[in-house]
Amino acid sequence: SVQAPKEDKLQKLLEMNGHTSVPHSYDYDLIVIGGGSGGLAAAKEAAKYEKKVMVLDFVMPTPLGNSWGLGGTCVNVGCIPKKLMHQAALLGQALQDSRKYGWQFTEQVKHNWMTMTESVQNYIGSLNWGYRVSLREKNVTYENAYGEFVGPHTVKARNKRGAEKLYTAERFLIATGERPRYLGIPGDKEYCISSDDLFSLPYCPGKTLVVGASYVALECAGLLAGLGLHVTVMVRSILLRGFDQDIANKIGEYMEEHGISFIREFVPIKVEQIEKGTPGRLKVTARSTTGNQIIEGEYNTVLLAIGRDACTRKIGLDKVGVKINEKTGKIPVNDEEQTNVPYIYAVGDILQDKLELTPVAIQAGRLLVQRLYGGATNKCDYVNVPTTVFTPLEYGACGYSEETAVEKFGEENIEVYHSHFWPLEWTVPSRDNNKCYAKIICNIRDNERVIGFHVLGPSAGEITQGFAAAMKCGLTKEQLDSTIGIHPVCAEV
Amino acid sequence: GKNEYDLLVIGGGSGGLACAKEAAQFGRKVAVLDYVEPSPQGTKWGLGGTCVNVGCIPKKLMHQAALLGSALKDAQHYGWNIAQPVHHTWSVMAQAVQNYVKSLNWGHRVQLQDKKVKYFNMKGSFSDPHTVRGLTKAGKETVVTAENIVIATGGRPKYLTHIAGALEYGITSDDLFWLKESPGKTPLVYYPFILHLYGIIAYISLTDASPDVSLECAGFLTGLGLDTTVMMRSIPLRGFDQQMASLVTEHMESYGTKILKKCFPTKVEKLESNRLQVTWKNTDLGMEETDSFNTVMWAVGRAPDTETLNLETVGVKTNSETGKIIVDASEATSVPHIFAVGDITEGRPELTPTAIAAGKLLARRLFGQSSELMDYENVPTTVFTPLEYGCVGLSEEAAVQCYGSDNVEVYHACYKPLEFTVAERDATQCYIKV
């Protein structure tokens, strides 16, 4: 392992001194392990510079045997199916609204899970296909194989049938992402599903218990309820940890008022099967976190959404000396996405202390490659990255939460401006007039610069995107005030 | 003698009310005159102006109704089982929209009361630079004097009076949003929902001003299931980016709206069946064509509402071509202490948010020791056609004209909203450019 860094250093010196790079007999310039948002973006970018690139992508089946194609979490079991099913739920609400706007149709409207899931899976299939074609067109070698390091500059790729091949490369990019965490209680892997299974479930989940309070948990709970299913959410402590808690509570309140039950301060301790079926019937036993109280409940489906673990423990990182955070499994990198091993880089969800978002991974992957092969110097800007949680009442945010702002700048230096608003579209169908909410957090000491933007309401993502650009430009409260609104839209608030 | 009020606002719309309420905040004695002259078809409405009663608000709600119609179609792809056929009942929607608008009228009256602004439901005209004569519907007269006067009377839809039958048989946006079910209540208005199979409506637009009104209305009427045609003399959305304008109309055509380009109407006649026969000249083909419709709506621009104000008496100058009131950067007219805001002012965007902002800033300059002027640059706006169009800043043509094509770079992209994929919707016209 000592040799590898030296070789690289030598090469760098030679390059710096104007010599062309010493040819090594590496198979590839770059091998990307993980064909998700970050990995594919980087691979395709590298191909633009005519580098010889390989992508290794492999999906270990879920405990229930589920698997999927090229594209990573976002495309297959994340953003894409989630947003489509969220849209299905929103359309259910739209159906109800439309009656007040004069549309007439039968009173009883039911949702067919299979119709939706088939459409969604078909679309995902087209994306998987699109990615394969795209890689081929760009001359990126793709192998559906599990990659792991076996020595310096060398990976072993093992395909579905168990056949193994060795490949070498000058540089590596680890972009293996994460997978859902399990509780470690009796019955969890046998009977529970995760988001990895939900979006391709070949039967309607029925009465569902969602365990967790992450955005994954709340988004899934929200969309399932919107499709007409009976949903309960079991929360250990707080909702949406890491997000603005004022808004998190409003989201929870809204969900509760709209038919989703919450069981607070309990954790499941065992899951048993009462009856097999599609769906079957499960009995969940849970214990209070504040005492010894035990409760039981019966559900058709139990969806675990308690967090995700980085896929870094079984890819041979120890063989090449890449350090990981032993507790979280995440990989610390410098601001150029470089691990402690100079020729090994990492992007995406596996990075320590970085946002787990597709656009961030894509941007980081692209810029990294531009720096490696294109002579660019731009680094990925991880500050003021906007995001949206697609709960029934959508939440768009950019910048600091109120708590973090107070912590960083001090309460006396923060001013919060806020307002409830009633979307015009909600008036006619008499929907809630005091739930939609917007707030901005300003730094008084810095010209009342807007350091936090939060909006709770329809199309939150569309609203937030523009404001993120404004914040990047240093938007101040005064500039915001002098911006004329578009009328009548939610964003003018 | 001493003037009765510190501020008199003529016109209780977006600009007028914002100005009046802001002035009241400074503890000033304020009065508002608002009066709605019924449309030729007899339609009238309450306090709040165009936006609230016959503009933005009802337009957006009906646009939403149409969007929900599309949502119903999408929903099937997403697994919702809706038995066909699905149809739309105008009266249910109209009632709901009108009720909401009325609640806003009420809200405005209460707000004025709370802020101690005196409200007169009267038509105002100038006697002298500080005196206005208010006339009620019944003819009762009240004289009001004020130190400062703000004219915010807005505009009303134009009619093509030179076309036979245009005034008697046509409606405008003033009437469209208030159409109810029973013909008895509003005679001479033709109802779009009658004979659903033949529910045909013609929109005639000269696209010189308020071009978006005709397209927006045609858009939502099509979305509600009505057979709708737009007739235009020249180009759609004049003044807007032309590439975007054609994407908007292309989408409308694929959505089901018929668009007759390069045509202008020559006469409108009423048939025995109560339908309207419209004759027009097709300038491309050089021939006359004719067809019958249930309703004909004019969206040929808006004229500033200044006729009965008696502006000549006090010397307030207007633009000879447009008739709008000429103001400087501080919203001042040619007469000291007389100001104007909103759609009535020359050279300003005809938008509610700009009227509101201008009205508020004016009040602050008059009574609040502020010197901040209204900034009309980079005002964002949106046209709520079936495929919505949002824009801010220069159109491509204006940019090239202003900076030269060598100095302008355009970045653009087509895109497909994720929601369209499963719904199998066509995204050909979804587009963005900077």
From TrEMBL, chain A:
State whether keyword Nucleotide-binding applies. Answer: yes
Instruction: Indicate the segments forming the FAD/NAD(P)-binding domain, all copies.
Output: 28-365
Tell me the ranges covered by the Pyridine nucleotide-disulphide oxidoreductase dimerisation domain, including all copies.
385-492
User: Which keywords are on file for this protein?
Assistant: Disulfide bond, FAD, Flavoprotein, NAD, NADP, Nucleotide-binding, Oxidoreductase, Redox-active center, Selenocysteine
| Active-site residues, Swiss-Prot/TrEMBL | 487 (proton acceptor)
Supply the name of the protein: Thioredoxin reductase 1, cytoplasmic
Gene Ontology MF, one: flavin adenine dinucleotide binding
Gene Ontology cellular component list:
cytosol; mitochondrion
Which SUPFAM superfamilies does the UniProt entry name for this protein? FAD/NAD(P)-binding domain, FAD/NAD-linked reductases, dimerisation (C-terminal) domain
**Matching Pfam families:** Pyr_redox_2 (PF07992), Pyr_redox_dim (PF02852)
In its keyword annotation, does this UniProt entry include Nucleotide-binding?
Answer: yes
Q: Cofactor note from UniProt? A: Binds 1 FAD per subunit.
Task: Tell me the organism.
Answer: Alca torda (Razorbill)
Where, by residue number, does NAD(+) bind?
212-219, 307
Family note: Belongs to the class-I pyridine nucleotide-disulfide oxidoreductase family.
Q: Which domain of life is it from?
A: Eukaryota
Disulfide bridge partners, by residue number: 74-79
Per its UniProt record, the required cofactor names are:
FAD
Catalytic activity, EC: 1.11.1.2, 1.8.1.9
* Amino-acid positions noted as binding FAD in the UniProt annotation, renumbered to this chain: 83, 147, 349
UniProtKB/TrEMBL annotation, chain B:
All copies of domain FAD/NAD(P)-binding, residue ranges:
5-173, 213-359
Has the keyword Oxidoreductase been applied to this entry? yes
Q: Which cofactor does it need?
A: FAD
The domain of life is Eukaryota
Q: Which UniProt keywords apply?
A: Disulfide bond, FAD, Flavoprotein, NADP, Oxidoreductase, Redox-active center, Selenocysteine
Q: Which GO terms describe its cellular component?
A: cytosol; mitochondrion
Q: Name one GO molecular function term.
A: thioredoxin-disulfide reductase (NADPH) activity
A single Gene Ontology biological process assigned to it is:
cellular response to oxidative stress
Give the PROSITE patterns listed for this entry.
Answer: PYRIDINE_REDOX_1 (PS00076)
The Pyridine nucleotide-disulphide oxidoreductase dimerisation domain, residue ranges: 379-434
Under which EC number(s) is this enzyme classified? Answer: 1.8.1.9
**Cross-referenced Gene3D superfamilies, in alphabetical order?**
FAD/NAD(P)-binding domain (3.50.50.60)
InterPro entries from the UniProt entry: FAD/NAD-bd_sf, FAD/NAD-binding_dom, FAD/NAD-linked_Rdtase_dimer_sf, GSHR/TRXR-like, Pyr_nucl-diS_OxRdtase_dimer, Pyr_OxRdtase_I_AS, Thioredoxin/glutathione_Rdtase
**Entry keyword annotation includes Flavoprotein:** yes
Q: What broad class of enzyme is this? A: oxidoreductase
Q: Name one Pfam family in it.
A: Pyr_redox_dim
Family note: Belongs to the class-I pyridine nucleotide-disulfide oxidoreductase family.
- What is this protein's name? thioredoxin-disulfide reductase (NADPH)
What organism is recorded for this protein? Alca torda (Razorbill)
